[in-house]
Amino acid sequence: MGIDENVRTGRHCFFRMHVHLVFVTKYRHKVFADRHLTRCEEIMRAVCEDFEAELVEFNGENSHVHLLVNFPPKVAVSKLVNSLKGVSSRRLRQEFPDLVRHYWRAQRLWSGSYFAGSVGGAPLSVVKHYIEQQNRPL
Questions:
Q1: Among candidates 135, 82, 79, which has minimal Cα distance to 110?
Q2: Tens digit of pLDDT for each residue in 59-98?
Q3: Whether 69 contacts 117, CB under 8 Å
Q4: Cα–Cα distance, 18 to 53 (Å, whole number)
Q5: Which distant-in-sequence residues (6+ apart) come within 8 Å of 57 by Cβ?
Q6: Facing residues of 21 across strands?
Q7: Which residues neighbour 52 within 8 Å (Cβ) at sequence distance 6 or greater?
Q8: With 70 as the cut, is the pLDDT of residue 138 above it?
Q9: What is the distance of C-alpha 52 from the center of its chain?
Q10: In which element (H, E) is residue 70 found?
């Protein structure tokens, strides 16, 4: 059996793990223009590289962003999210004074909550069926 080219390798493992993340602005303010989202993508791509993760896809609207991240098993999603939101909030507010006026009291760009969903691979029903069909020893 050959290894799929999308499977990544670690020192002792093979993996293909993706997470779909959604971050919403504080108070759901509609503050982003294309220039903000372009810079936000650059910042988040650099943060992912620090975690040995890959930002596969990025897009957003004026009040939220969507990310598709391929990450290694040694990375906790909560730690990755914390860094992505913290670094991007700080950098965007430093570089774009127009964002600061919306958040001068809150001192943060993002809402405290986020969405994270595992994605990729086979549907759960297929995995469940595969596990059920294993030859269990007697």
A1: 82
A2: 999 999 999 999 999 999 999 999 999 999 999 999 999 8
A3: no
A4: 10
A5: 66, 67, 68
A6: 67, 116
A7: 71, 72, 75
A8: no
A9: 13
A10: strand 64-70
